Amino acid sequence: FDPRHYLGTHCYSWPKTGPHRLRFLLESVKDLRETLKKKGSTLVVRKGKPEDVVCDLITQLGSVTAVVFHEEVRKIL
What we know:
mainly alpha, 2 helices, globular
């Protein structure tokens, strides 16, 4: 979870993630974790800036050969 997603937007400082969306995200992550556990896997969940958290995870795991990501599209007014 990137803390920046829970701050205000660039325009008008509206929240990017409101209480309903946050509840949906938390329930979805919980359900995904439970589903993966039933299949013998797990889900790593971290809070922090992805550029920091991913680097730390790569260091901890040590055997990472690829990292895939997507970037949020921002509309410039």
